[in-house]
Amino acid sequence: MTRTVYVNGQYLPEKDAKISIFDRGFLMADGVYEVTSVLGGKLIDFNGHFARLERSLRELDIKRQISEDDLLAIHRKLIIINEVNEGMIYLQITRGAPEDRDFVFPDPQTTPQTIVLFTQSKPGLSNNPVAKKGLKVISIEDMRWGRRDIKTVQLLYPSMGKMMAKKVGADDAWMVQEGSVTEGTSNNAYIVKNGQIITRALSSEILSGITRSAVLRFAEEAQMEVVERNFTIEEAQQADEAFITSASMFVMPVVEIDQQAVGQGTPGPVATRLREIYLEESILKAI
Ligand code: PDD
Known about the structure:
Strand 1 (4-7) and strand 2 (10-13) form a beta hairpin. The protein contains 8 helices and 15 strands. With 287 residues, it is an alpha+beta fold. N-(5'-phosphopyridoxyl)-D-alanine binds at residues 35, 183, 186-188, 207, 209-212, 245-248.
């Protein structure tokens, strides 16, 4: 089946979808994105993703030119046309395509934003076998820019980080700034020690994960103790458990950090339980 995608008001077969070479997303990474997961053909935490999109746009002084209702309708239509049961929807909004390359922002009156959405079907996403095995991560220096709270399409360093991990047989990288873990290349990072769930507090140094916020809420509802503070790689290696969260991985255990086993070197009970709770609760609330 050919995938149908959405580009600036049109639903098109993916091979016919085109944007200008002058698009500022392409030339300057001047755009923001969201990835929303789909389970049972429904959207997980659409409102959370929309709220963060709104904030990312505002921080970049891009005035949104499409309503929340219209965006929701596009998400739903793409799920139906592409028959997505489990997977993700990728949404990107850029400052648009002016007539020429210029560092100065174009006038939004004459340069409409570029809005692109496409589906990624991933049958079995909720039953990912990796959750039984866990991930191996390496640590790398965090060399990204200072506004990681804005979900921009500027993903070169995270992509390089993932490649550094692959090169040494690991799955992902945790980034470290001034001795403390910031986050994973495309996920938030956690450790568990003596029953406490520890994760870095929100700031401009990390992305405010939509999954993070749901998981911390569920953890507190389940009487688990959550502490938002910095932690080091050494502390993570000595922890009882480690895990990550993101819209595409949900809650995923981390079993090895820089070739050192965490805990027993197998997925721990807290991460496993949080994954179950997250999946159960978010499916109930999916729209
Ligand atoms: N990444 N931190 C970073 C740097 C991320 O890129 C992401 C998401 C997260 C987790 O956010 P959320 O829980 O809202 O997905 C944290 C998406 C999934 C991606 O780039 O594919």
